[in-house]
Amino acid sequence: MLGQSIRVLSVIPPMTQLNTPYPSTAYLTGFLRSRGVDAVQEDLALALVLELFSPDGLSAIRERIEAMPARKRSHRVSAFLDQFDRYRMTIAPTVAFLQGRDSTVGHRICGRNFLPEGQRFESLDVYIDEDGGDPLAWAFGALGMQDRARHLATLYLNDIADVLRDAVDPRFEFVRYAESLAQSQPTFDPLASALAAPLNLVDSTLRELTLQAVARHSPDLVLVSVPFPGAVYAAFRIAQTIKAHNPSIKIALGGGFVNTELRELAEPRVFDHFDYVMLDAGERPLLALLEHLQGKRSQQRLVRTFVRSAETSEVRYINFAELDVPFGEVGTPTWDGLPLDRYLSLLDMLNPMHRLWSDGRWNKLTVAHGCYWKKCSFCDISLDYISRYEAASAATLVDRIEAIVAETGQTGFHFVDEAAPPKVLKALAEELLRRKVSISWWGNIRFEKSFTPDLCQLLADSGCIAISGGLEVASDRLLKLMKKGVSVEQVARVTSGFTEAGILVHAYLMYGFPTQTVQDTVDALEYVRQLFDTGCIQSGFFHRFACTVHSPVGKNPEEYGVSLEPLPPVTFAKNDVGFIDPTGVDHDALGDALNKALYNYMHGIGLEEDVRSWFYGRAPRTKVPRDFIARALSARPGVDAPHR
User: Per-residue pLDDT for 620 more than 60?
Assistant: First the structure.
């Protein structure tokens, strides 16, 4: 390999998304090609699903089921066997429909006599009206046949996934596949045991797909990007397969999971599978690695890279000091080589804003690197992906947008920033309008006062269809404690401005923050109810607060009224850390109530009910006036906002 060009294969491991490629390989491939590197990419997550959810894949599942003792088959598995011929007959046309390649199948799916219906279809009972009418008419009306069919087809795929989980691999998920093996695991032992186990159907299918990709591309270096804990197990299976097939192929591991959880990696067994483990933005470490593999740079001059010592077998971290590649020079991501016509547009949530994450083929693009605010106490603000803020010019961003549209033929964009800066979005909108570039876009922001009604309208005119942002705890006391830099009143006004401009709004919500009481939680839900009732937000999601070692809470717990539980010795993953909150609140029980309420609010149900009705047992009366948000919206600039 010395002195020769190196072919680089970037791989998306299972599981990430089914409707659109995870963007890491597109960024790396685009960057490497801009530097003259022979770079290609593969999405093995999509390939695995398409192989399993095919006529032959279902037949292979049936073979595994028939080898099981009948007494070990779940009700779902038995029902699948009973209706197997229908499943096998319908899987290919249903997948083609979800890929947008055969829309006519939607008519048969909507007839409710085409697809076999398992337990997932029981969720439709929630929508049946008192007269026994169409349970989905409220959501899709008389003309929404394609959307209705996509929702039913999604339930059908989820039914099959349940069977796969019961009969083949209990860890299988469309997104969070085997994530418990990796998330905050202090030792490598659980993952090592799983990797040493005999291959099941999912493993063997992934093995064959990996070998096919290697045969197609003959890479010298394979990059495996792992964004989430739910992609770690499959990433190691891919590396294990490649090493067994051809040990001379070098393999590097990186991505969001590595950047957050493997910063103190000391486990030598990781390097039985990977030759290099890289931290943070990958451009500079990759350039250094390529020079090293070509004999132009010693190992001691690698950048942000873990290796295993050949002499001692100990893990070493090497970080030769070099500047990162500026964000404006990372190049344009490319989706060349990814099968854009084979992604599945799913519709598991009927809410029009919530569905954007799984419905549609979005070009994912970053407006700026890092976060311009970087103060939130629950966030990993000490890490590079947050702390190093860099923006590109509006002209550069629109150049990238035009190049991506020309390549993909798709004009939908999801800006995947931590929080897109208002000034950059304003400049971007003006540049899009100046060049008469027509796209549809959505992304994540902070609900700050810079988003005036005029700016919201400008963003809408440029193609913005939806935004998401963190309301978090919907409590001014806790928002101040977490240094969010917003208030509930401000969020109401900002979100109302977006809604008035025709832009859908999703709120990220949080519960279980340090010192959050039951009263805080009830009051937060009342704020959320009012935000839905006044049309300020259309969608939301409650996350349970998790304390991480890289966040201000994890670094200075005493400032937040909590103490940390001691961590065991760590040689592998380190991120979440337990804490002792003196309030002693059972946040798990409260979380069930919050999520139930929010699910109903997103479907327009229960907005007139007292929020206490969602909680189990006794709950305190909210201290928030029922017209608080309405009064906040009616307050003119310069006039005191209403008091609680």
Answer: yes
